[in-house]
Amino acid sequence: MKCYADCRMGEDGLIPRLGNMKALLGILAGAGASYGLYKLLRGGGDGEINKASPRKSNAMAVQPGSLMAKVSGFNVVSKVDSGNLTAEIASSEILSKSPGSLEPRHLGMLLSLLQSSPSPAERREVLITLGNAAAFTVNQDLLREFGGLHIIAGFLSDPSPDVRVQTLNALSNLSMNIRNQEQLKIYVPSVVQLIEMSPVNSDLQLAALRLLTNLTVTDNHQHLMKSSITLLLSLLVVSNEVLQIQVLKVLVNLSSNPDMMDDIVQAQAPASLVLLFDGCTSADVLLRLLFFVGNLRAWRPSAHVAEALRRRQDSLYCVLLDSSSQFHSRLPLLLSHPDEEIKAQVARLLT
User: The whole model's pTM is what?
Assistant: First the structure.
């Protein structure tokens, strides 16, 4: 089984005019082994830290009305013992700190400002700061204890797309913590809806998929994605390379769980999915596609189930697994691919 997690610190599409995924699904409807589980927190590899580009700032030049000037006037929120804390803090103290060295009082003040600010630009800046801080385990725990997960998730419906993107980035970093996932799982339907309603290849879709990648890295909450398989498969055939890779990270995670397999193979899939198994497809995308198929082929349906699936010509089973699928004639052609890892994976699938 191969699974993926994404954590980031940071701040073109094939069909940009299609608008949102609901319109896209309407178009696609007519087109009618597992690998070892990665650690949730990895020392290296596919895990990424959502890191906003650091702002150049001078601690001696804090402008009136700026974010840091406002932060200094807020009280600490829930569960922080504020008895010995002053209600104000020098702005330069926060400005001079890295995200990993923010103190509990700073996090509490930022959460207070996030809830009270009428400015989308200010909310975005606070969320970037909180998201960067959430790349550190100690802050992941503190923000959960402060009730910050639900405060931040409340901005998934913010009118500003930029605020929603930074909300998703912050939640992605927070979701690298197993205990946080227990609270964040209730937002899976909202995150899936953002993917469905957002423009194809948008920053919103990418950020939402990163969050779902982390929430599906273990099998604890994968069942919440059962009704979203068709959406992911449809997005896979129309998105750009960056989004395709993120979609495949989620699909590989889901397909590593045998309990999810029935729902995956029965999902409606676009017939054009098989066309991605081609030498012209990006090597990073193609390799993950082969991992996905490797997980699928570890599943063995009974004769009765296989016959029922064959009657559904638009099921993923018929598109990729059935003996009549074009996939079986396309796979051997990839043995001549220049990428050695791809050739090795193809050879494993052919044996």
Answer: 0.79
